[in-house]
UniProtKB/TrEMBL annotation, chain B:
Protein name (Swiss-Prot/TrEMBL): Carrier domain-containing protein
PROSITE patterns from the UniProt entry: CARRIER (PS50075), PHOSPHOPANTETHEINE (PS00012)
Source taxonomy: Bacteria, Bacillati, Bacillota, Bacilli, Bacillales
Gene3D superfamilies hit by this protein: ACP-like
Entry keywords, A to Z: Phosphopantetheine, Phosphoprotein
Top-level taxon in the UniProt lineage: Bacteria
Amino acid sequence: MKSVTLPVVQPPIYGYQFFAFPLCIVLQDKRSLPWLYSNFIQVCFDKRPDPPVPFTFYIHDYTLNPWLHVEQLQRGTMGIVNRNIVDFVRDCLLEGYYVYLNVDEFYIPERAVYQKSHFSHDVLVHGVDLQNETFQLLGFTDKQMLATTSASFQDFALAYDSIAQIDHQAVCNRIYLYKVKDAGAYEFDLALVQETLEEYLKSSNTSRRFRMVANPWDHCAYGLDTYPCLQDYYERLLAGKASLDVRHVHSLWEHKNLMVARIKYMEEHTDYLTSPNQLRAAYGEIERKARNTRNLMLKFYMQQEEATLHKIMRYLDELAEAEALAIEEFLSVLKRHQPQLL
Amino acid sequence: MITKNEIEEKLVHIYMSQMQELQVGPEQVQQSGIDFSSQHIRLQDVGINSLGFIRLVVAIENEFGFQFDDDMLNVELFETIQQLIAYIEGKVSQ
């Protein structure tokens, strides 16, 4: 066997790679769609100063899903098992494991920082070519696309070893091994969808669902309450007190895009949506405006015109108002189908 | 009134400048140039993704002196370069 490439698909969520990578793997199998569309409803905004992930979907643990077998190591464990990283990753891939870990992209070709600056970033290794001694890595390239590129064994080893020099806080110390779990099962969970929509509408702290394993994330805003946080970010950006970050509005658009896809899925694969025309139209319009907002932010990134930020802030106000009505309509449509659940 | 050929010419110039600056797009495209008058050249074929498209939009706005409608800031709406040229033509003639 001279090469192995484990398959990946383009995921609907790619603003943050830690969400994208598990989805790249499990969404190859359409059986995972009921799980996808039962989840990814709630969003959260981390209100602490300079958080690494300010605004995105709320998920308790991004590695947990019914079709993913996950093994977790610490980087230090590699010393205990006495394997070098290239041999270890190669053998994992040959056994069907995707390897998710952080590397210093200074050593990874086709990355924005390649041979320019040191930067710890996560990658999904999903292929190996033994003849050419290269790994295939999924991640954001220098063309700002989530794509597969190659790195030689030698560069990969340097990129792995260099993390010890640049990630002093060891925040990305873990190595995850992902493997498809063919025996997974999950039925579309209407009650979960209803409950999470309610939580989004009421801006409830969804992390309280997991208080048996972790204290609630009280430092976050949830659901509709994230809109004022986004407005506050743009106020600070206008005042020169925040750095430019396109990810906020990209995540905003991903959420609306997934809501549209969820409605379409529920229409086609369930009988839960009775008379969904108004709902479909409302979320279609919300998705359009969110996409425009994201694209305007990209425009601001290149032009730095304040007027663009003011327009984004106006759109955020309009989105908050429209989405509150749309979620009420969503819940109302579901209630018509199954009133006993509400 | 600017002609369609002049729009094409300016667009080629903008595109080639950006490709050289960003070092994106297939090398052969950069070396040989593109026939923008072809009906079949798609934006994605010449290395323009969503971010690259916004970069192109900003340069087009600066060159031709109009603003793209917010709804049109989406690369997926312009499958071919000719569709982009037609949009520019429509905006500059307003």
